Amino acid sequence: MKPFLNENFLLQNSIAEQLYHNHAKELPIIDYHNHLPPDEIANDKSFSSITEVWLKGDHYKWRAMRANGIDEKYITGATSDKEQFLKWAETVPYTMRNPLYHWTHLELQRYFGITDLLSKKTGPQIFEQTNAALSTQGFSVKGLLQKMKVEVVCTTDHPTDSLEFHKKEKKSESDLKMLPTFRPDKFVVIDNPEFLVFLEKLEEIIGSDISTFDELMSALERRIDYFHSLGCQLADHGLSQLFAVQLQGKHLDKILQKRKNGGKIKRKEAAVFQMVMLHELGKIYHQKKWTMQFHLGAIRNNNSRLLNLVGADVGADSIGDYEQAEGLSAFLNRLDTEEQLTKTILYNLNPRDNELFATMMGNFNDGTMAGKIQWGSAWWFLDQKDGMEKQINTLSNMGLLSRFIGMLTDSRSFLSFPRHEYFRRILCNLIGEDVVNGALPNDINWLGEMVENICYKNAKRYFEF
Fold first, then answer.
1. Are 144 and 211 in contact (CB under 8 A)?
2. Domains and CATH numbers, the chain
3. Does residue 250 surpass a pLDDT of 90?
4. Is the pTM of this model over 0.85?
5. Which of 47, 330, 357, 413 could disulfide-pair with 53, CB 3.0 to 4.6 Å?
6. How far is CA 8 from CA 11, 162, 167, 288, in A?
7. CA–CA separation, 357 vs 398, rounded Å?
């Protein structure tokens, strides 16, 4: 019986151990998609408690606590940091076989050197121990990132964001590279409740009224130019699905005016507006040589009571069962036919779509570069051992795993970077198992190079940050 979370955690044979310890373990991290707050990075924030850095905003933990019968006041309420932490500690033993159990103890070990298991019994001591560490030098935001060898972080930013903290960080002497990512979903989805709020903000920024679709696109292009001037190289879209619709002859100005006048937008109108805008944005991304990302398939804010009580992004989202193939194919094909399809990363949330996304990606690689169209790492609810293994195996069967750009955190937490280690261990173990079973040759030099590429070097070449 192996000890829990020892140096060979998840590594089931000597080949896997060699690949991880000699080729993956010490590599830097390029985290090309996350939701970290730029102000906290630029200001090198220090944290008052483990609760603040570990539990605030972490909807993964919040879902687990609710499932464990913890009252909402200890999750998102006004109770003390210690009370909230102890309720999380009480919950942790019940998360066994959920990835939270692994992540929790990896994070305690890697950042704080704590090997005790977190529980109701150990909670008070670990609360004091972690807080004591957080009050010392080296545990501010940049210290935490440095511990994990984080080289690049790409935050997720709205087109109306000032990017003032990206400017500030750019002027700093830090070795860390913090770059913005352009996320215009509030404009793409015209029937979203915040469309008019953000349209007004955009009008204020550009100093003029936006009454037509062309004016809206011109304003967004100006913001893209601004993002680009601060090093932005990625756009991201978090949508339910893409739609196969005709783009010509549509009354986009009328749809926009209808929305501005408070009219109800029909589903078909919203779909047309979305796809025309994405097509126009895609052409601009190609011109800028940006990478375009699509996170598809979430059904969000299912619990209206919780939405009204706490807000969005609090752990009430789940996997949706939207149709994906036809709309995705039409969108990519249109840009490819016009020779304006930029580098693209596709992420699916529904595991039934794994093979769909893996094969769709292969349709549009054009030989201009290795791995131009990527199927992204296992996302959100699939970001766990089983989900990662299925993504890696499906990509291996239907694409080129060796050209994969690897892992990201997609996280709001500065303590989430051991997820890269988790991915690297899983990857090395899968390859090691194949060698042991005779399915791959025992060519450690090439397999080691392949692991290094997937974990770091492919992303470095792909993005050219």
1. no
2. 14-43+139-463 (3.20.20.140), 46-138 (1.10.2020.10)
3. no
4. yes
5. 47
6. 5, 45, 41, 43
7. 10
